[in-house]
Write a structure and sequence with these properties.
- The chain is built from 17 helices and no strands.
- It has 499 residues and is an all-alpha fold.
- Helix 4 packs antiparallel against helix 5 and helix 12 runs antiparallel to helix 13.
- The protein is globular and about 60 Å long.
Length: 499
């Protein structure tokens, strides 16, 4: 074993028990991204948030979460992924307790920021630990399926739990519920996961690169989420966007010249990795708005309450679970991720297309439920395929970085997609009442437009999937320069990585 080789994290009992612990930590983080949305009116009434400042209950979490994923993933490679994972869990759990105890707006926003930091640190290394624990292709496909289920279904489950907890015991409990789960996950992770023996701590950490990329990502996420209030064409949004672009450019130059870069340029030489990240970004941008906008449609147009809304979206996580846990590993194992992905994206396009035709006098069973079926099936197949492809070019020393890249793309894509689609819906709705449209008709027209544009984003992801991610064997291992096949993570579900 070379000095830089990082053995797969061992477990003292069962790798599947370890996977359950990893997914429990990840589920807390994913749930927190949406569980708060349903409780925002109660939070506003309790703590006295203004309408303009209420959005920062969400944004204070999203900005550090999106900005720190990449850096935290690299720290996992350098200082040990178990150590980073447990540290993130501790920060997230303590911050959740502080959120629940908050008695004023400032205390809640500070605690939410800390939650975002803990969430980023926890999430950044989870996928890396999964793919390095499970090296046999069949088991890896199943493990990635479990991880993908947590990733894709957690947000939808958060909508249901948020409504139930807020109505039953109050908004404070959407945060308190994380505390016992987090404590148990920390204790079990310390006992079950075994730290890597050699994590490359002697390598340089590229401090300048770390400052540049973290500042760039936080600035970019801030520009995106603030655009909902100020508009994408405002001087404020464009100014912060320009600053983010300058910082990203400086980071790219730094990585090309640094002796031991934070983000080695070789990571983007693999067709599977770059194609998967591009596909993932467009898919998430188009699909993430579904969770937000379909809730608004059901509440503001169909008249659903919080619990009814949460129950109405349950078919999506159920189908995602069936697909990602059972069917996706078999299909990917037999046909390969590149063959499964286009069909999955086509189903997502179909689901968004159905929502793009919702009427103002619609009904759930005839207008919303039919869309949940292709959306759940498509997302449940697409996420395991993308996760496996995105990790396929990572060496054991870089798997934490690859995991951080995958989650960063997901977070930035989700923030951008939600901001764009919600802004389109709001601006289109605002223009219609002047033409004689009713409130319900105006809202529905705005939501329809947003779903149609989301379908276009996913169609762009489909184009990448069928062009960049070719199914030929020659494209399977696009860059042999990474070293021998044994040092790279094979495509999820395939018999081996083709050199």
């Amino acid at each position: 074993m070379s000095a830089r080789t990082v053995p797969a994290p061992a477990v003292r009992t069962s790798r599947w028990f370890a996977l359950a612990i990893l997914c429990a930590g990840q589920l807390m983080v994913i749930l927190d991204g949406t569980i708060v949305n349903v409780a925002l009116p109660a939070v506003q009434e309790s703590l006295g948030f203004s309408s303009s400042s209420l959005g920062w209950v969400v944004n204070a979490y999203l900005i550090p979460f999106g900005g720190l994923l990449l850096l935290a993933g690299r720290f996992g490679d350098l200082f040990g992924r178990k150590r980073v994972f447990v540290t993130g869990l501790v920060v997230f759990t303590v911050a959740s307790l502080l959120c629940g105890l908050a008695q004023n707006t400032t205390a809640l926003l500070v605690a939410r920021f800390a939650q975002g930091v803990g969430g980023a640190v926890t999430s950044s290394v989870t996928l890396a630990m999964v793919v390095t624990m499970f090296t046999e292709p069949g088991e890896r496909a199943k493990a990635i399926g479990v991880y993908s289920f947590v990733q894709s279904a957690g947000g939808t489950l958060g909508l249901l739990l948020g409504g139930v907890l807020t109505r039953a015991v109050g908004w404070h409990w959407i945060f308190f519920v994380n505390v016992p789960i987090g404590v148990a996950a920390v204790v079990l992770a310390q006992r079950v996961l075994v730290a890597e023996r050699d994590t490359g701590r002697g390598r340089g950490t590229d401090a300048l690169g770390a400052v540049l990329i973290t500042s760039a990502l936080m600035t970019a996420v801030y520009a995106i989420v603030a655009a909902a209030d100020h508009g994408f064409g405002s001087a404020r949004t464009l100014g912060f966007g320009l600053v983010a672009l300058v910082l990203l450019t400086a980071f790219a130059v730094r990585q090309a010249r640094a002796e031991d870069p934070l983000l080695p340029p070789r990571m983007f030489r693999y067709r599977a990795v770059s194609g998967a990240l591009g596909t993932h970004a467009l898919m998430i941008s188009g699909l993430f708005g579904f969770q937000f906008l379909v809730v608004l449609y059901m509440q503001k147009v169909l008249g659903f309450d919080e619990v009814e809304t949460g129950a109405a979206v349950v078919p999506v996580p159920l189908l995602v679970g069936v697909m990602s846990l059972f069917l996706a590993p078999r299909l990917i194992g037999r046909f390969g991720a590149r063959a499964v992905l286009p069909a999955a994206l086509a189903l997502i396009c179909a689901g968004l297309g159905i929502l793009g035709r919702i009427p103002a006098d619609g009904a759930y069973l005839t207008d919303v439920f039919p869309a949940t079926v292709p959306l759940g099936i498509g997302f449940g197949l697409a996420m395991p395929a993308l996760a496996g492809l995105a990790m396929s070019g990572a060496t054991p020393q870089d798997s934490g970085l690859a995991s951080g890249m995958f989650n960063t793309v997901q977070q930035v894509g989700a923030s951008l997609g939600l901001a764009v689609l919600s802004a389109l819906a709001a601006s289109h709705t605002g223009a219609l009442p002047h033409d004689g449209a009713s409130r319900a008709e105006a809202l529905t027209d705005g939501y329809r437009l947003a779903f149609q544009v989301g379908a276009v984003f996913v169609l762009g992801a489909l184009v990448i999937a069928v062009t960049v991610l070719r199914t030929s064997r020659r494209a399977t291992g696009d860059a042999s320069a990474a070293g021998p096949a044994s040092s790279r993570a094979p495509e999820a579900g395939t018999p081996s990585a083709t050199p």
